[in-house]
């Protein structure tokens, strides 16, 4: 499927700004996302953060923007091509998709300019002050040049394929986000009147973007890989005069378009679309601002882009590659202090995790609590001869995951069922590979229900315990089964043997493998079957309590809030008198603090050292407080287009920890928290009293320097 290109005259409509009026009940998801990435950029600008962490934050903003462009911007173009260009309702802005896209492109250009100002005016001078230098070829010493040339000869040159564009050499197919070098060439034998040609060299993806150099005087020196390649282009284009050269990068439409009736299997369909994704229509051209207008125009026309889809970068193309600087520079003082997660310990007299779970539930708050406990739980299922069967969902995991290893080993001797989500965005290729390896190991592999992503985080072990009783043991989580990301994503894990939970987990697996629906999954809420209605019912229950004069409040922590029905229920609850605190890391379409609509709703976002990923929902319930965790945000994709599970946490000590230690910490944060205003802007939380960072406090709890939740500052 192709992407329609913009029509002439679009730049004039881009001047039409979206009306910024309170009558719009919902913020645009795309503008809200841009504000989220702006909050990440603010962390790169924040001089209180360690320098290399700031570099890392800048790289994250670039990676975030890549995905936004290849999915959301490409999606706008696709809808416009398909004829869906009707204006929104007035309460959502009243703009057509084309008008929304025009305004969004202006916003993206502004953001890119801010990224490079941060790089050039703040980070590069600060790095140089720390003797960390990214040098141009002309700045290299003789020793550094010799080493760089050795690297070029041995590692780079064998991978290069120079191409000159002419009638016998058409423009090469440039892969999505591949860094290239463009050259304007003139053939020497044909004289100065010869027409100019375009040359292209693709910079090898297999090599590091930063090449380490021998430093002098204590310097830690690097040269960008494309800078090294550019320095040697005369060797690749002998017989040509090189008039100009510049690095560029093309971003392509990366949406997958699948039709069920045409698919032999989900696996084959996804694999075919992955191949197409690499060749999707171009939606953005990034090129160094030093490039000549002739080169920019030739590339723009070749990729069939409008002028506002061209981004001139005042620095290296692809800032996400600066992440390599963070990993290659070994200076601990320029990074966050090392943190070691708290290890789980069995209770006295408990012999193993199964013995522990027969006595009590175990809850973990990652990364403050070690993820090893979850790995060991699944590993114990594979190794324990008393475990009869294992069931597991996999949305994302790591290449060297011990969980994957445990499942393949268990497939040799147990009944093992794994539901692998093949369409986990940008992890499809690896998930296909894992699915095949699991099948080869004797594991029953399923791909869930076609049209629904399997996003729930569930593991179920069936064990014949030493007393002869067959019991189920389950892990339910808010994050992926990925030990790597578990070190810097905040998530909740619940391990339990409670029959009312584990029995319903088995029903969910039956739904995933056979699409057999149950009349009820209580106490679980399951999307797309019961979760959307269940959440609205809980919100409406709080409104009823408020009207009756009973305790009524909602505290909800999530990654995104976009579902219109849920937002409307929150508006009505606010009108009824319910006090509502929302901790929403990313996109939020709800407009808080509007008199007569949402004056009792407060929204905060926390961006810090760890990626806030946990979903926790607390309802006062007239004094009989209930708290839930789960895999689902309050977004249409989670409530309608995915299989999700939200579960209650009822054990009193765990309930208390969620409410008084974790949620209270996030509501008290006045260091990393930003508060959403009625006009859509975010402002820093006022630093009244003692400065308090939720993530720092939770690390102190894990380390034992703060012993109990009551020692945290109380929310005012």
Helix and strand topology:
Elements: H1 10-13, H2 29-45, H3 51-81, H4 97-129, E1 132-135, H5 142-156, E2 163-165, E3 179-187, E4 197-202, E5 210-213, E6 220-224, H6 225-230, H7 233-236, E7 240-252, H8 266-277, E8 282-288, H9 293-302, E9 310-313, H10 323-328, H11 353-359, E10 362-366, H12 372-383, E11 387-394, H13 402-410, E12 415-420, H14 428-440, E13 444-446, E14 453-454, E15 457-464, E16 470-477, E17 489-496, H15 499-514, E18 525-527, H16 531-547, E19 553-558, H17 564-576, E20 579-584, E21 601-606, E22 611-612, E23 616-619, E24 626-630, H18 636-640, E25 642-648, H19 652-668, E26 673-676, E27 682-684, H20 694-703
Parallel strand pairs: 1-6, 8-9, 11-12, 12-13, 14-25, 17-22, 19-20, 20-21
Antiparallel strand pairs: 2-4, 3-4, 3-7, 5-6, 7-8, 10-17, 11-15, 15-16, 16-17, 18-25, 19-23, 21-26, 23-24, 24-25, 26-27
Structure description:
This protein is of the alpha/beta class. It has 3 domains: 24-334, polyphosphate kinase like, CATH 3.30.1840.10; 353-514, Endonuclease, Chain A (2-Layer Sandwich); 525-711, Endonuclease, Chain A, CATH 3.30.870. Helices cover 36% and strands 21% of the residues. It is built from 20 helices and 27 strands. The strands form 4 sheets. Strands 14, 18, 19, 20, 21, 23, 24, 25, 26 and 27 form a 10-stranded mixed β-sheet that branches. Strands 10, 11, 12, 13, 15, 16, 17 and 22 form an 8-stranded mixed β-sheet that branches. Strand 15 and strand 16 form a beta hairpin. The longest helix is centred in the first third of the chain and has 33 residues, at 97-129. The two termini are 54 Å apart. 42% of the residues are buried.
């Amino acid at each position: 499927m192709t992407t329609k290109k913009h029509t002439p005259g679009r730049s004039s409509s881009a001047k039409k700004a979206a009306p910024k009026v309170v009558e719009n009940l919902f913020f645009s998801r795309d503008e809200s996302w841009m504000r989220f990435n702006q909050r990440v950029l603010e962390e790169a600008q924040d001089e209180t953060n360690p320098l290399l962490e700031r570099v890392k934050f800048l790289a994250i903003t670039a990676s975030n923007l890549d995905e936004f462009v290849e999915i959301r911007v490409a999606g706008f173009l696709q809808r416009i091509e398909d004829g869906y260009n009707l204006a929104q309702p007035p309460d959502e802005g009243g703009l057509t998709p084309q008008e929304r896209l025009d305004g969004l492109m202006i916003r993206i250009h502004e953001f890119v300019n801010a990224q490079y100002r941060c790089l050039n005016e703040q980070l590069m001078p600060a790095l140089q002050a720390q003797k960390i230098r990214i040098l141009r070829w002309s700045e290299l010493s003789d020793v550094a040049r010799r080493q760089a040339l050795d690297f070029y000869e041995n590692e780079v040159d064998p991978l290069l394929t120079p191409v000159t564009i002419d009638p016998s050499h058409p423009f090469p197919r440039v892969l999505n986000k591949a860094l290239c070098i463009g050259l304007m060439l003139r053939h020497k034998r044909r004289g100065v009147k010869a027409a100019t040609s375009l040359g292209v060299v693709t910079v090898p993806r297999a090599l590091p973007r930063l090449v380490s150099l021998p430093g002098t005087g204590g310097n830690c020196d690097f040269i960008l890989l494309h800078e090294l390649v550019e320095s040697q282009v005369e060797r690749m284009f002998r017989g040509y005069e090189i008039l100009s050269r510049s690095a560029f990068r093309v971003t392509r439409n990366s949406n997958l378009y699948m039709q069920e009736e045409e698919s032999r299997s989900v696996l084959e369909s996804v694999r075919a679309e992955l191949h197409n994704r690499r060749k999707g229509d171009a939606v953005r051209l990034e090129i160094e601002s030093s490039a000549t207008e002739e080169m920019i125009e030739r590339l723009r026309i070749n990729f069939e882009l409008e002028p506002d889809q061209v981004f001139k970068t005042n620095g290296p193309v692809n800032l996400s590659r600066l992440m390599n600087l963070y990993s290659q520079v070994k200076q601990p003082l320029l990074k966050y202090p090392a943190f070691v997660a708290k290890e789980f310990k069995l209770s006295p007299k408990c012999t193993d995790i199964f013995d522990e779970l027969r006595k009590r539930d175990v809850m973990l708050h990652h990364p403050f609590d070690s993820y090893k406990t979850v790995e060991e739980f699944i590993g114990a299922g594979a190794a324990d001869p008393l475990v009869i069967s294992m069931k597991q969902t996999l949305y994302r995991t790591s290449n060297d995951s011990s969980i994957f290893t445990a499942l393949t080993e268990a497939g040799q001797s147990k009944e093992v069922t794994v539901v692998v989500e093949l369409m986990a965005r940008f992890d499809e290729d690896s998930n296909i590979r894992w699915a095949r390896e699991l099948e080869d190991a004797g594991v029953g592999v399923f791909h869930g229900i076609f049209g629904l992503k399997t996003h729930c985080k569930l593991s179920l072990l069936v064990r014949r315990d030493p007393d002869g009783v067959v019991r189920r043991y389950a892990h339910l989580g808010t994050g992926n089964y990925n030990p790597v990301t578990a070190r810097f994503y905040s998530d909740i894990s619940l391990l339990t043997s409670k029959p009312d939970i584990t029995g319903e987990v088995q029903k969910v697996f039956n739904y995933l493998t056979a699409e057999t629906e149950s009349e009820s999954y209580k106490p679980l809420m399951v999307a797309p079957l019961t979760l959307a209605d269940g959440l609205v019912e809980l919100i409406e229950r709080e409104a009823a309590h408020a009207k009756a004069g009973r305790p009524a409040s909602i505290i909800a922590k999530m990654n995104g809030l976009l579902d219109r029905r849920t937002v409307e229920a929150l508006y009505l609850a606010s009108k009824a008198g319910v006090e509502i605190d929302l901790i929403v890391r990313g996109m939020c379409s709800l407009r808080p603090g509007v008199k007569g609509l949402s004056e009792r709703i407060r929204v905060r976002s926390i961006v810090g050292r760890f990626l806030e990923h946990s979903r926790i929902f607390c309802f006062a319930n007239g004094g009989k407080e209930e708290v839930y965790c789960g895999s689902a945000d309050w977004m249409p994709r989670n409530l309608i287009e995915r299989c999700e599970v939200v579960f209650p946490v009822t054990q009193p000590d765990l309930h208390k920890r969620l409410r008084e230690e974790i949620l209270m910490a996030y509501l008290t944060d006045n260091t990393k928290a930003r508060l959403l205003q009625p006009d859509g802007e975010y402002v820093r939380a006022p630093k009244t009293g003692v400065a308090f960072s939720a993530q720092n406090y939770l690390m102190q709890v894990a380390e034992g320097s703060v012993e109990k939740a009551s020692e945290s500052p109380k929310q005012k």
